[in-house]
């Protein structure tokens, strides 16, 4: 590459910098180009994109926020559209689309997204929002969780390899009917999605 200032040679330098972002500081290696003749510094669009991606990755790592790839995998695992996924989570119509495209989530949505990529927590979400998703999705998830199938197989969607078997959540319907959380915890009743199908 030639210098945009003199047409001469350029050098790449890498420096450890403290970068301010969202009111915090992140330590990271930053690359810049230096014009050998004028000593002026500059960057390319590719370098700027890499800088932003690295900074966002550090932020996600610090707050344990899922990546765009993880969010997409969670949605595809359920065979849901972007619009349906937003509805499931109680978000705006296009909100999940933005997060899956890489936009950093609002503070109020960070915990929800962390729960989404945890299979145990996802069972709770599906139980509470069973009227927001197709019955075929609930049935496929039930078979997956109970170990009846080693893949999540929702009709007309890609098959997804299963992870280690997990337990289904406590009986959410009973919890809201009795409003006695202690009794349900002691009973340790498993959620049976089939009881919810008729209501969905």
From TrEMBL:
**TM annotation in the entry:** none
User: The HTH cro/C1-type domain covers which part of the protein?
Assistant: 71-115
According to the UniProt entry, where is the signal peptide?
A: none
Q: Which Pfam families match?
A: MqsA_antitoxin (PF15731)
For this UniProt entry, the molecular function terms from Gene Ontology, in alphabetical order, are: DNA binding
**Name of the protein this chain belongs to:** Helix-turn-helix domain-containing protein
Q: Which organism is it from?
A: Rufibacter glacialis
């Amino acid at each position: 590459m030639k210098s945009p200032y003199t047409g001469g040679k350029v050098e790449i330098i890498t420096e450890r910098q403290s970068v301010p972002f969202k009111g915090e500081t992140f330590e990271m290696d930053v690359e810049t180009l230096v014009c050998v003749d004028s000593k002026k510094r500059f960057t390319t669009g590719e370098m700027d994109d890499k800088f932003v991606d690295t900074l966002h990755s550090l932020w996600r790592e610090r707050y344990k926020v899922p990546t765009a790839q993880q969010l997409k995998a969670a949605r595809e695992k359920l065979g849901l559209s972007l619009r349906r996924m937003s509805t499931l989570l109680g978000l705006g119509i296009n909100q999940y689309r933005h997060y899956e495209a890489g936009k950093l989530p609002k503070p109020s949505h960070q915990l929800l997204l962390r729960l989404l990529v945890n299979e145990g927590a996802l069972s709770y979400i599906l139980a509470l929002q069973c009227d927001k998703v197709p019955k075929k999705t609930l049935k496929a998830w039930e078979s997956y969780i109970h170990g009846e199938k080693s893949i999540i197989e929702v009709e007309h969607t890609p098959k997804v390899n299963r992870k280690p078997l997990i337990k289904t959540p406590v009986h959410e319907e009973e919890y809201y009917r009795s409003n006695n959380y202690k009794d349900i915890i002691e009973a340790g009743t498993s959620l049976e999605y089939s009881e919810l199908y008729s209501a969905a």
